[in-house]
Amino acid sequence: MMGLSPGFCLKLFKASAVMGSGLATPRFNAITYRAASTPKVLETIRPVFGSDDANSLFKVVQGQSTNTVEVPPALVLPEIDGKYTPISKLELSELGKELVKKDPNLMSMLKDEWSYDALEIELLLNPASADKTAQGKAYLRIKYDMSSIPSPPLPHFFYGVIDYVSKKKIEPGDVANVFFDPKNNRGTAPQLDDFGLVWGWDKTGIKTSAPGFGTGSTWKFCGTCSDLGAKVDCELGVSPSSNEPHEIFEFRVPFNMVKQNDIISSYATVGNYVKDYWFSYPQNGRYKIPDTWGYLSFSTNPIPGLIRPFDIAALSVLTTLSTLALFKRYSKKGKYLL
Ligand SMILES: [Ca+2]
Ligand SMILES: [Ca+2]
Q1: For residues 92 and 77, is the Cβ–Cβ distance under 8 A?
Q2: How far does the centroid of ligand 1 lie from the alpha carbon of residue 319, in Å?
Q3: Ligand at shortest distance from the CA of 112
Q4: What angle do CA 323, 141, 309 make, to 5 degrees?
Q5: Spacing, Cα 311 to ligand 1 middle (Å)
Q6: How many angstroms separate the alpha carbon of residue 229 from the centre of ligand 1?
Q7: Is the pTM above the cut of 0.70?
Q8: Terminal CA-to-CA distance of the chain, rounded, Å?
């Protein structure tokens, strides 16, 4: 992705401010939000748009939930290229290798980097959008990779895609945003540990991206995503959700940046900052108010239904044993793993 000049940073920052002008409201009350929300975590079958031949079983978490969403571990390591990349071009994670070794049939189920091992969350129209008539379908899929093998050091990432299924044509101002509160200390304004990524097409239609950093009172968007070790990209392409080309936004962020607490908070949204409409999780989230973000934790178990219970139990034992063995080995050298 291109870098951003300081002048461009300023423009993007202003654009982002416009983006959020309808979303931040001093009337917001975190307690009201929690009390009013309805947690929904369910497994469902969702049809493929524009096709009637390939239903898939996805674990879906609807928006509006204040439940802690459990992010599953990755079996496949995504390539961040703005497309659904075929499995032939991808590598398995350590966990994926372990499970495929135990059950070679698993390999035939892995078609791309998002369809089988990532948790899906539907993004819903944020009621604070200026355009309240906006319609669309968008899905966030997330997962993480945290190998139990620390040496040689492997890059570990939090991965995600926003599959903007209904958006068949790129329009200036189409962008995706993800924000993280790694320490989960939330608040009514972005704190110093908070950060985010904005990427998409600016109001002249040029592809753009920038990271945002909490200042204690607002966001400062500047620099490049690669400065953080993050990567983002977006393209028009097909996905299992629709065989008509539509906008797809992919990202990855170093896992140790995202997770500085067992539970973190996060907010994701996709839409258009010129027209000011947003599909979000949580639906009522405000990008400048971490108190409104959803809670995420990190499961060591893959998505249920993909892996048999025996495999999960056996894997837990294997992981524990290998961790103990490594700890013992490292302890002898006077180093600490944890
Ligand atoms: Ca990809
Ligand atoms: Ca924070």
Answers
A1: yes
A2: 28
A3: 1
A4: 45
A5: 27
A6: 17
A7: yes
A8: 34
